[in-house]
Amino acid sequence: MSEKVKKAKRKWGDRRDGRRVRAPGMQTVMAYLFPKRTDCEVYLNDTLDVTELLKYIEAKNASHPDFKTTVFHCAIVALARMVRERPLMNRFVQGYRMYEHNEISLAFVVKRRFADGADESLMFLVPKEDDVLDTVSQKICGNVKETRKSETSTGGIDALLDGFAKLPRLVLIIAIRIIRWLDFWGINPKVLTDGDPNYSSVFCSNLGSIKAPSVYHHLNNYGTNSIMITFGTIHKEELIMPDGTKQIRDVIDFGATLDERIADGFYFARSLKLVKHIFEHPEMLDKPLNEPSGFEY
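User: That's the sequence. What structure does it adopt?
Assistant: Structure tokens below.
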């Protein structure tokens, strides 16, 4: 599997951005009983032990001072692997039907300046099958650096949104209703979806970068995004280790909001275990995404 989940020929019933999948009876009926994504939000929160990860990052940054790897970069790679190895996490419901994304994508917001009123830019990453942490870090650092060269949007989805914002109110209302209708049927043009976090596999928010705690962030009914994850600040916390001893460890809290129609709680919980395992064994981040993690559930 590459960044494309399946390079299969488009079939009748598929969308441009996803292939239709047959869901179990309960999930199929739920799509009709609860057609809005915000009606089906499940909230998860947990703490990730990043003690070993911080040591790993320190050593890695010493080897390449030209760009800085961060905990958030590691989280992006860990989530990409989780979605790749747990394909139900890459599903979405739209138009009362279940689909699977054609690609694995992760999106997040970049603040152009850490100041009140500063513009935000939307970042969209589609990892390749041979990507490892270093290549992903280089991409993110390069994209963020390029974005922060300007204090206003310079193209892409940001410029498109700025253009819509200039429309008269009545025109904008009509335009948005048409766009939502196209979204329902999966026929939105690429110019409206490419680079839009609402069409990503996982939408992330690094609240730790602004010294804020993790929160639960709502999903959106528009688009195809079924997973929203926020990461808070790194802090010290006493944890009980596998051998029963207590240790003060570096941890980071995170909150996840998921669409319960795409999988059951058992599947969600096992997917989370993989992410936690990667954080506790950061050497896995140096494996290409197309190489199985070997994690035993």
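The domain at 35-150+194-286 is CATH 3.30.559.10 (Chloramphenicol Acetyltransferase).
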